[in-house]
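Posting for a labmate who doesn't have an account.
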Amino acid sequence: MIPRPFWLNRIEAAWRETSIVWLCGVRRSGKTTLAQQLGEARILYINCDLPVVEEMVRDPQLFYRDCPKPVVVFDEIHQLRDPSRVLKVGADLFPHLKILATGSSTLAASRKFRDTLTGRKRLVHLVPVLWSELTAFGNVPLPRRLLHGGLPSALLAETQQPAFYREWMDSFFARDIQRLFGFRDLDRFNALFEYVLRQSGGQLEVTRTASELGISRPTAESHLRALEITHAITVVRPFHGGGQKELVRQPKVYGFDTGFVSFARGWNPLRPDDCGPLWEHLVLESLLALFPDTPVRYWRDKAGHEVDFVLAHRRDAVDALECKWDASAFDPVSLRAFRSYYPRGRNFLVTPLAGPAYSRRFGDLEVRVCNPDGLVG
């Protein structure tokens, strides 16, 4: 069992604020394994896929009263008939217990969650294996992480296995999409999912997407929303201050994992030009993990200048991040255009840097050159 201290610390920190932690993430991202790393002596692990569990928690008050462990893990809790009631009783009547509930989506995605437990829970979104975790996974080479993706079983495989990605997509539809949203057409849904993966990292226009796939706009919108709720895609919206020369509406959409993007595009083996777009995806995954409470945006003006990611940590200053597989290929023109609108904030050039971070000047711009680990602090 490969230790993942970053995520364990995130769960423990969330428990210091509230008794329920909702651990979400796509299927096979490692939620169950992570929960088990909390310690066998400490946790009561409940697999909610088992029919007997429904009877165990029929009376939640009795269940919690007799709980022999200080931590209760409800794995795939959305399988229960009334999961919100089970969690609410635990939070309200047994605050000394710590509860970890896992699922692939947000609570609000399922009609079963009549109560979304506002104020009683904290969310931890488990993303695929981070840059900072590659050492723990046996010093996996970065190109393999880009090609295979960050789901642990795929990452550790010696070669990219197309059957894994196809089976995952079918299972994702059957166990998550169909159960949560009631969609019935597997082929139509997967066609849209693969289309989005092929367009990943670019702007996505819903009407054009629907037209190219031969589906209605409402169907495309509902499927895209389901993908976003279940964390299979990340929608990055434009950052703007109301300026007439900035894009304000068109979002960019990223697939949740570089392996699935590579698979959908047929990128095996990777060519040098493939690494840049995949590196941008990997940086985004790091941002989602490192700054879970800060929306990730991108910026573009009507002249075509674009900054990969923008983080508004503070009201009067925004951080700008450019992602480059090869730092020597960085052109500061777009960043300089961005700073003409928003002069205050830090500038980062995020690259696969093996050594320590350093600062570099491009005329009047100061840019911090670092890998994803250098974004914290």
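Reply:
Got it, the structure tokens are right above this. Residues 334 and 340 are 10 Å apart (CA to CA).
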